[in-house]
Amino acid sequence: MIIGVLGPKGTYSEKAAEQWIEKTGRKGEDVLEYCADIQDVFSLLEKDGCDIGVVPLENSIEGSVGITLDRLMENDVQIIGETIVTVEHCLLSRGKKEDIKVILSHPQGLGQCRQFLKEQFPAAELRTTGSTSHAAKLATEFEEMAAIASPETADMYDLNIVMSNIQDRRYNHTRFITITKKDTGQKFIKQLQGNDPECSYKTSIIVYLDRDRPGALYNILGEFANSNINLTRIESRPSKKVLGDYVFYIDFKGNISDAIIKDALYNIEPKVGMLKMLGSYSEFDSYCESN
Amino acid sequence: MIIGVLGPKGTYSEKAAEQWIEKTGRKGEDVLEYCADIQDVFSLLEKDGCDIGVVPLENSIEGSVGITLDRLMENDVQIIGETIVTVEHCLLSRGKKEDIKVILSHPQGLGQCRQFLKEQFPAAELRTTGSTSHAAKLATEFEEMAAIASPETADMYDLNIVMSNIQDRRYNHTRFITITKKDTGQKFIKQLQGNDPECSYKTSIIVYLDRDRPGALYNILGEFANSNINLTRIESRPSKKVLGDYVFYIDFKGNISDAIIKDALYNIEPKVGMLKMLGSYSEFDSYCESN
């Protein structure tokens, strides 16, 4: 199987893909295809350049990854899995701390280290890159450049770890999702997860509420609450039509094949302007032993 | 009065401050104090370097401004007003389109033009700055540099408008909020808005729900729904403690001095882990004629 991830070698998304491969017991069977940015992972999937993509969805310090949410809305993809990666950002450079004038990273990397950058490098020029490892690769050019990336990329790109654990909170985790094209999703889920009823599943949907129906969100959440379905996340994102108009990304426990979930979604559908199913998948840390 | 805004001259936040000054009928009485970034506006307010700050909160294409949400949570400020600014990003440079190798802007500016940048300048180096006008100022240095900023900054910094209206959607608006220190907020509200019952008010709060209480968000929304209080926005942000743990930013119509709002908040308080009042303020476009 070909798995599209952020490249070049050394991204957290590659780490997520490897974690996921290991969880699903497929080690050695897959090939990684490196993409320049998150959007390219979705594009590669769309044109069948890969079977599966692994992209970041949310981080415990900096929150949602907007471009991933937007592509989930616009592309015809299905979420078939999730992985959580521990993020430990380092400042990597060929030079010394006092040489550093330019700092590069993915926008999420810069955001997760915002306080650090403001305190330690208030005058540094900040550059955004498609990935943290691309930042590391670029930082090899000049001693005055540094990248915010994982400690592993230091060796890969022959850079020094100038400072370690530089994110604004010690605890830093990113949730990645594994995606496929909608028409192939079901096949992969069967192949990778089996259909073990012991697995704990999660389902992700997007809903658009009509603005002129006050209480619409409350009514939807009511369908979940009344069926004792546990919401794990609710996130709003602009509909991009008018300011103040949103779509909601909702994650909850359970599988679309469960009668209780099916019923809840059946009740919700007529109450919303749009409902998009993103998929049901094994919760992180609940992959069944059989895999 | 001293009003802290993003600087240098030419930011959308300056435009927001001017719009707000005009709405409140104070033209000519205030002095703007330019700050390097959003965090500095909050810091200036904290150390009494300004009476009021104006900062961006959300954009119709790129969504919430994370750093503003975080500061609202951590600093002791009160929201006393809001303004909506039409954003029309241009690509500004001393050079021609074919010369451009480096593009600078505030992270929100880069995000709002993500598609444009990917299609038109796939190889350009992207740099983040504290504001769009700071990007324009820096872009004066070399012909190969361009800034994403407002058309007005072209004249201010003697740059050419290389391309106009480059954001990914034609419709592009940013909502700014006016903030004060909590202890001075009430004074300013009285001074600036009077207490006209004809004004349409909005209230903003932050709530933290205990994770082990499923349905907690539903119960809170129920308090609003049962009192026919109209929610205008609900946004989640990581609590920064553990992945999957969030605080919710909720905006609704009404004033904290209304009995119905007071009652709803009174009922909500025991159901949440934390409730922070951010303030009640005149809705944009509902400033009373008397002002």
Characterization of the model:
The structure is a homodimer of 291-residue chains. Chain A is α/β, with parallel strands linked by helices and 291 residues long. Chain A has 3 domains: 2-87 and 172-185, D-Maltodextrin-Binding Protein, domain 2; 90-163, 3-Layer(aba) Sandwich (D-Maltodextrin-Binding Protein, domain 2), CATH 3.40.190.10; 196-282, Alpha-Beta Plaits (2-Layer Sandwich), CATH 3.30.70. Helices cover 31% and strands 32% of the residues of chain A. Chain A contains 10 helices and 15 strands. The first copy, chain A, has helices spanning 12-23, 38-46, 66-74, 107-112, 114-120, 132-139, 151-156, 182-193, 216-226, 259-268; strands spanning 2-6, 31-35, 52-59, 63-64, 77-86, 90-93, 102-105, 125-128, 145-149, 160-163, 173-181, 201-208, 231-238, 246-253, 274-282. In chain A, strands 1, 2, 3, 4, 5 and 11 form a 6-stranded mixed beta sheet that branches. Chain A has a 5-stranded mixed beta sheet with strand order 8-7-9-6-10. Chain A has a 4-stranded antiparallel beta sheet with strand order 13-14-12-15. In chain A, helix 9 (216-226) packs antiparallel against helix 10 (259-268). The longest helix of chain A has 12 residues, at 12-23. The two termini of chain A are 17 Å apart. The model of chain A has no long low-confidence stretch (mean pLDDT 92). At the A-B interface, helix 4, strand 8, strand 11, helix 9 and strand 13 of A face helix 4, strand 8, strand 11, helix 9 and strand 13 of B.
